[in-house]
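Thread amino acids onto this structure.
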């Protein structure tokens, strides 16, 4: 029986390997060749991806570095779960893995990786993966098309090390996308870059997708609002992971820019270890009533903040930081998604640091719809600096601050700004410490006014010294189980106030 089993296993393995062929594409090739060797390579990626070629599930196509011009590659064959199809660019030797570390300022270089150049950024899509499954595309460069990669209804695809730039008609409104996966699921996009897509950098619309280590930039202000990027990373769908990604708006562009956005129907997504820089307001955006139960964690907003809008609810922002924003946190409502409802409810910020906004730490922003921001909580946060702790240009109620430290803020709140209605501040404070602010300390439960004794306020080190009266002074109920650094809470007799739990061990 053992011999029969081994024979069956051997036959199965052989059948699985039948279609695992290797083909080649180069700028010196010819599509009339058989593609089976470097010397008999095909000329175009388009032919290799078409149903006219012999490429089948399990096969690999190696594409040599070079300028392939304005091809429009449409994949017409899918792989299978056990036999994916791989299209892989190389520099000089198949499998030599061209440099993955493209950074802003680099040019696309056809001698390093294969280059697709549409020559006209107003039309065409470089690579189309519509209705395709189980395909890997890696080590390519794309520029000057309307769209770079489009994968409508694509599933179990992987895009790796694709460097792209210049998409969309700069004279049209909302035109041009770098990489877009829509009605899609279970895909991975990693190590990719997009520079200057007029509408969207990378969009994933669907479920169970991963976006990892991607970089999206915009610096084009040729025609102002139209040429500058709108959405840098745009997510609609459920159970997606955005990790270690970077977005940056460079210069004073015509469009304010949305860094990393969850929009539409969006639940149980995770944004982790990301950086967003230079957006006018939206480093991270939670937008529409269908945006629920998402987590933003360990992420940084530089010169921008966190925006909750149009009814987003029950989301968690954990261990995040905003530096030098106009407003660190915005709540607002617009005519989108059914009009006035609320700007945001039951969202929780925990272990967050909000540092030196030019205007307010928390802005109940006016915009065009009159609706409340309510029942949002700031737990174990640090607020340092700003002209105002709050701007109150919309109704707000049921919001609270617990176990938090507020220092160096000039004014308590402002209202009646850019609109003619004066809104009161309805905000509860519990177990929080106010120090060196230029306003009278608000009333609340267990409010203190002593020096929190940070390790180094000059160096923005908000850990507590052993002498701090904030140690063990917080409330346990609702407090996060770990601090900004991941240290367990509580370490002593109670929860510490602020984003860091005092740790006596070195």
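Threaded sequence (506 positions):
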């Amino acid at each position: 029986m053992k011999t029969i089993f081994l024979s069956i296993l051997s036959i199965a393995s052989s059948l699985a390997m039948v279609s695992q062929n290797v083909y080649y594409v180069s700028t010196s090739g010819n599509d009339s060749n058989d593609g089976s060797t470097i010397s008999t390579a095909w000329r175009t990626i388009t032919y290799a991806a078409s149903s006219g070629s012999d490429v089948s599930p399990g096969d690999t196509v190696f594409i040599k570095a070079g300028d392939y011009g304005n091809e429009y590659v449409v994949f017409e064959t899918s792989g299978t779960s056990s036999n994916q199809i791989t299209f892989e660019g190389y520099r000089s030797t198949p499998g030599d893995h061209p440099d993955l570390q493209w950074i802003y300022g680099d040019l696309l270089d056809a001698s390093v990786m294969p280059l697709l150049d549409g020559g006209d950024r107003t039309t065409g899509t470089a690579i189309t993966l519509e209705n395709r499954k189980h395909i890997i595309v890696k080590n390519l460069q794309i520029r000057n098309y309307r769209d770079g990669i489009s994968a409508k209804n694509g599933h179990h695809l992987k895009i790796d090390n694709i460097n792209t730039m210049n998409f969309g008609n700069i004279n049209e409104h909302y035109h041009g996308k770098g990489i877009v996966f829509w009605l899609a699921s279970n895909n991975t996009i990693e190590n990719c870059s997009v520079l200057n897509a007029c509408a969207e950098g990378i969009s994933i619309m669907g479920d169970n997708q991963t976006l990892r280590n991607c970089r999206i930039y915009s610096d084009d202000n040729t025609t102002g609002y139209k040429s500058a990027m709108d959405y840098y990373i745009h997510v609609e769908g459920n159970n997606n992971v955005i990790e270690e990604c970077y977005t940056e708006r460079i210069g004073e562009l015509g469009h304010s820019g949305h860094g990393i956005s969850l929009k539409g129907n969006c639940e149980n997504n995770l944004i982790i270890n990301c950086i967003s820089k230079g957006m006018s307001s939206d480093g991270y955006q939670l937008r529409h009533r269908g945006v629920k139960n998402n987590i933003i964690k360990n992420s940084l907003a530089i010169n921008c903040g966190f925006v909750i809008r149009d009814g987003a609810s029950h989301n968690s922002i954990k261990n995040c930081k905003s530096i030098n924003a106009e407003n660190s946190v915005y709540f607002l409502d617009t005519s989108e998604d059914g009009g006035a409802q609320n700007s945001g409810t039951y969202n929780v910020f925990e272990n967050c640091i909000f540092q030196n906004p030019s205007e307010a730490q928390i802005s109940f922003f006016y915009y065009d719809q009159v609706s409340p921001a309510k029942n949002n909580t700031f737990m174990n946060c640090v607020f340092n600096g700003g002209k105002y702790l709050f701007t109150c240009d919309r109704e707000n109620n049921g919001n609270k601050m617990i176990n938090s430290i507020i220092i160096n803020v000039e004014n308590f709140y402002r209202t009646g700004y850019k609109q003619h209605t004066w809104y009161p501040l309805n905000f509860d404070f519990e177990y929080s410490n106010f120090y060196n602010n230029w306003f009278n300390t608000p009333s609340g439960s267990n409010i203190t006014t002593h020096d929190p004794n940070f390790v180094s306020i000059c160096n923005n080190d908000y850990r507590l010294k052993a002498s701090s009266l904030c140690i063990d002074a917080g409330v346990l109920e609702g407090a996060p189980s770990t601090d900004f650094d991941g240290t367990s809470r509580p370490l002593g007799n109670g929860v510490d106030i602020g984003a860091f739990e005092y740790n006596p061990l070195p």
